[in-house]
Write a structure and sequence with these properties.
about 450 residues, mainly alpha, Clc chloride channel, 20 helices, about 0% strand, disordered N terminus, disordered C terminus
């Protein structure tokens, strides 16, 4: 009995355990509310931009470059560490053990700036999403509770980021998988139940505020066994190469281009951002405005066949998303990548008579998203959850594997971790991915 008693937690330990669990649940509620707020702001910003373009599409030639320049200036000076997707910041923060050093990456000030400048970018037509910023905001909200559970800070960041993905798309399984496959790249048994609780709390909060929904609406399209399955390797290889090319460009620009181009980008970042904005505006004019924003409406229309997009939607959405990403303004990659993949799938579907277009669009989405993220499980899980299409799980899995391999031929490094490395080096003076040990659950 004496030995058993020594292994049982005391009352003080039990209080500490329940305090930590309560922090994860309360944090999940906050993340869910933040995700709903960011979705509302993103939709409002895009609606306002479309209203402005209703006066004249040529306004984008001024508004978009100016907005990109202003957003870059704010991200550099007023809200540093808010640039880009936000997911690399969370990965870097988890890799830094010193709380004071990691704080600038996931502070509440940075989170506030992320929301403000992300909204500004969408109001000016940026081809960005809100899910990456939701990950950083979610991690920041969880980190705010860090002093109450200092031994669990890395777990808090992981839970906040995973809940951000889950709440942004109403995809709880994808949130769990993303936390394991991308944010931590390992299964952490000690924090698994706490992360699950955070995702549940975030999901319930989102359900309470906006109701239950499927992000792209349900679809039952399937690929008939036979010739139709040829779209799987075709989409997988092309989407993987395309996503890998995108990642390679973004990584190259972030690390500094050689020669005069590199000196210009690093020395005149605001001007460079404005020029990227001008390129996005030109893409918008060439596609009658289809490439602006997250691309959600266009991807959904292609999936369900409810409307046609511009013939060059996929390629020019790729260009616009690349320009938006290298400009340095805050914004996510998930939604625009899904839109590029939808465009790819629609173009390939035109080559196969009698094959359901919606099914090929889903395959294209998984292919390109995998190519960008190099996270194949996350990619097919999130697309499956977004459409509640379980009949396509096997072809989506195969597509993801092919796309992951094709992407790594073009870009050997994972995008988010490659972008996180210089952040860790800048803040700590060491290379990223050094081992770090979590405390007890």
């Amino acid at each position: 009995m004496r030995g058993l008693k020594g292994r049982l937690p005391g009352s003080r330990d039990l209080v500490g355990i329940w305090v930590r669990r309560g922090l994860f649940v309360i944090g999940g509620i906050a993340v869910g509310a933040a995700a709903v707020l960011m979705a509302f702001l993103a939709d409002a910003a895009q609606s306002a931009f479309r209203a402005v373009l209703g006066v004249s599409p040529l306004i984008a030639l001024v508004l978009t470059p100016f907005g990109f320049g202003l957003a870059a200036r704010l991200a550099l000076t007023v809200f540093p560490n808010s640039q880009g997707s936000g997911i690399p910041q969370v990965i870097a923060a988890r890799d830094i053990e010193d709380a004071a050093l990691r704080h600038p990456l996931i502070s509440l000030r940075t989170a506030f700036g992320k929301i403000v400048v992300m909204t500004l970018g969408l109001f000016c037509g940026a081809s960005t999403g809100r899910e990456g910023p939701t990950v950083q905001v979610g991690a920041a909200l969880m980190a705010a509770a860090g002093p109450l559970a200092p031994e669990r800070q890395r777990g808090l960041l992981l839970a906040g980021g995973a809940a951000g993905v889950a709440a942004a798309f109403n995809t709880p399984l994808a949130g769990i998988v993303f936390g394991i496959e991308e944010l931590s790249r390992a299964y952490e048994a000690k924090t698994s139940s706490l992360i699950l609780g955070t995702i549940i709390a975030a999901g319930l909060t989102s359900l309470a505020l906006v109701g239950n929904y499927t992000y792209f609406g349900t679809t039952a399209d399937t690929l008939p066994l036979g010739w139709a399955w040829a779209v799987v390797p075709l989409c997988g290889i092309l989407g993987g190469f395309g996503g890998g090319l995108f990642s390679r460009i973004v990584i190259a620009v972030s690390r500094g281009l050689p020669g005069a181009a590199g000196r210009f980008v690093s020395g005149r970042p605001v001007v460079f951002a404005a020029l990227c904005g001008l390129g996005v505006a030109l893409c918008g004019l060439l596609t009658d405005g289809h490439i602006y924003g997250t691309g959600y409406e266009e991807a959904k229309a292609l999936l369900h066949g409810t409307a046609e997009t511009h013939a060059w939607f996929g390629p020019l959405k790729f260009v616009a998303t690349t320009l938006s990403s290298i400009s340095g303004i805050p914004g996510g990659l998930f939604a625009p990548s899904l839109a590029v993949g939808a465009g790819l799938g629609a173009q390939i579907a035109a080559l196969f008579d009698g094959v359901p277009v919606g099914a090929v669009v889903l395959v294209g989405m998984v292919a390109y998203l995998t190519g960008v993220l190099q996270a194949p499980i996350t990619s097919f899980v999130i697309v499956s959850e977004m459409t509640e299409n379980h009949a396509l799980v096997i072809p989506l899995m195969i597509t993801a594997l092919l796309a992951d391999g094709a992407s790594k031929l073009v870009c050997p490094e994972g995008l988010y971790h490659a972008l996180a490395e210089p952040m860790v080096e800048r803040l700590t003076g060491r290379r990223a991915h050094a081992p770090a040990v979590d405390g007890p659950a």
